[in-house]
Amino acid sequence: MGGPIEAFFNALAKYSWRTLVGVFVAAGAFLFFAKPLGVETWALPWRGYLVGAFILTATILATHLATAVYERLQRQHDRRIDLRMVAGSCTYSTWSINVQPGGKKPMLLLVCEMNFAHYEDYSVILRDAYLKGTRSVLPTADLTVEGSCDDPTMLSIGVSPIKARPGKPLAGRLVFVDQFNDPHLSGKLTFRPNTLPTQFHANRLVTVPNCVFCSQPVTLESQAKEAQMTAHTACIWP
Ligand SMILES: [Zn+2]
With contact defined as beta carbons under 8 Å apart, do 232 and 211 qualify? Predict the structure, then answer.
């Protein structure tokens, strides 16, 4: 490249993106709209330079744009809330069976204690919670985590399908969804079955003898031991 052209390109490189946009648009206009602009004869001898300037500014602007998009994505990725959680005593971690609100379907009710903390300078709001591999079926109030010194929280999470098996402990991870719709996965938790005493079921069967799911009478033997209401084991685990 000759001296003046090199100087021109050097000057271009030092200018801001606004100048680059200006050169890009001007060079493009001269190249593609020389005739309607009435500068055809004027632009012709400069065609080589115009093509060079057009391609160069287009390349620089495309690079700038790609970098800006990449940095923005990177910033958004870094901005994800770093929510920490420590499970409370496992003696509180239980599962039982209840009824889904507004439907005659069983619901797996998980109860546990959890400590939440974060370093953000705003409150983190947990809008949804469920066991990994299930979905939430019990609307829960938003849980606000103020910062690094929050008290432990007792959680009651109603999910479907019923991943627990009768009489067996259930292991799994909880997913908490924050106000930005980002999920946060807990460590592995073990929920033990909250088996109600036989006498409790026997007493209730006297006053509420029919299954909430199929409306048929339930015997003490066919009553689901982890169910908090009258229900056949076979109606919960078909
Ligand atoms: Zn039933």
Answer: yes
